[in-house]
Amino acid sequence: MTEYTIGVDLGGTNLRAAVMDRSGKLLDRIAESHFSPGREELLAEMVRSISELRSKYGAAGLAGIGIGVPGFISAREGVVRNSNNLAFIENFPIRDEIERRLGAAVILENDANAAALGEKWMGAGKDVEDLVLFTLGTGIGGGIISNGRIIRGFLGMAGELGHLVVVPNGNPCGCGSQGCVEKHVSATAASAMAKLMHLGDNLSSKEVYDMAAREDDMGAKAREIWRVMGETLGAVIATMVNTFNFPLYLLSGGVLPAWDRFAPAMMRAVEQRSATYRLSQGATRVEKALLGNDAGLYGAAYLPWIEQRKVSV
Fold first, then answer.
1. Catalytic site residue 111?
2. Which residues face 255 on adjacent strands?
3. What SS3 state is found at 143?
C-alpha cells in the first residue's frame, strides 16, 4: 500500500488538488476546478475533488490532507480569520467540517506559508533549513521557514510580509494601515504608479513591463516604476536579512517576469542597506523560486507529513 497525501491550493473561485507520496513525487492531479462564491459551493467542490483523488488511491493509504488558503489563517483552530476573496468562510470551522465530511485528517494553512514550505521541500530551498519567501502578485504574501518548519506566531498569522510598512503615511491599504509593501511593490502598485505618471489607466504589470522597452519618455517612466519598486523591495529584503540572518530569500509570483527590470535596483538596495548581507560574502542568496504556481500544492501536500494531525471522525 502506497502512503500518500492530498494537497489543495485554494483560490477565490478556483482550486487545484494533487496527490504526492512521502518522497515528494507528484502521483496525480486534477485539472483546476471552479466554484461559485458561497460556503456550501466551496465545500462541495473541495469534497468532490478530494474524493475523486482518494477513490483512485484508496482511503487506507491517505496520510492526511493539506489545504492552502489565502488570508489570515489560524492553523491551530483550522479557521480563516480574514480573507478578501473568501469572506464567506471567515470564522467558520472549515477544517472540522471537511474532516467530518471526508473522515480524514485535514490541516489548514495560509497559501504563502504553504508555498514557502513547498519550496523548502522540493524547490529552491531543498539545501537549507531556513528561508523567507515573498509572493509578488496582485498583492504580496510571505512565508517564513525556520528549522524546516513554518513560523506561524502564537495566533498563526505571522509572515504577513506584504503589510510591513515601508512608506510611513503612504498609500492606504485594505488592512487599515498606510504605506504597506504591497501598495508600493506589486502588480497593483505598478498599475497605480503608471496611472499617476499618465502612462494609462488600468495597465497590467505586463503592459508596464513591455512599455519599459520603449526608447521614449513613456519608456523612461515605465523603467522608473520598476526601479522604484525594486529599490523598495530591496529595502524590505534587507530588513529580513538583518532580522533573521537566513541564507535564502526567494521571490515568486506573477510579477517575476519583470525580474530584469526590478532586480538590479533591488539587489543594490539589499547590499546598501544590510551589513549582514555584505558580511556574509555571498553566502546570503536572493533568488527566484523554482516551483512556480505548484509551490502551494507541494507545500499543502507536505503539511500532513510534518504535522501528523490525528483526529477522531
1. yes
2. none
3. strand
CA angle 279, 281, 283 (to 5 degrees): 110
7 closest CA partner among 19, 25, 23 = 19
For the domain bounded by 128-289, which CATH number is listed?
A: 3.30.420.40
Helix (H) or strand (E) holding 29: strand 26-34
Among residues 268, 74, 250, 24, the alpha carbon closest in space to that of 145 is found at: 250
Does residue 301 contact residue 65 with C-beta atoms inside 8 Å?
no
Give the list of residues 6+ apart from residue 87 with CB closer than 8 angstroms, or none: none
Which of 145, 156, 65, 157 has the alpha carbon at shortest distance from 103? 65
Mean pLDDT by 10 residues, the chain (313 residues): 92 92 94 90 95 96 96 90 88 96 96 96 97 94 95 89 93 91 94 96 95 97 98 98 98 95 98 98 97 95 80 38
Residue 7, all three cell numbers: 494537497
Residue spans per domain, the chain: 4-115+294-307, 128-289
Kindly write down the DSSP assignment for every residue of 253-277, as one continuous string.
STTGGGHHHHHHHHHHHHHHH-HHH
Q: Which helix (H) or strand (E) holds 144?
A: strand 140-146
For β-strands 79-82 and 72-74, DSSP reports them as: antiparallel
Q: In terms of CATH architecture, what is 4-115+294-307?
A: 2-Layer Sandwich (3.30)
> Are the C-beta atoms of residues 162 and 182 closer than 8 Å to each other?
yes
From 9, 21, 111, 294, active-site residue? 111
CA distance 78 to 136: 26
Q: Looking only at Cα atoms, what is the longest distance across the chain?
A: 66
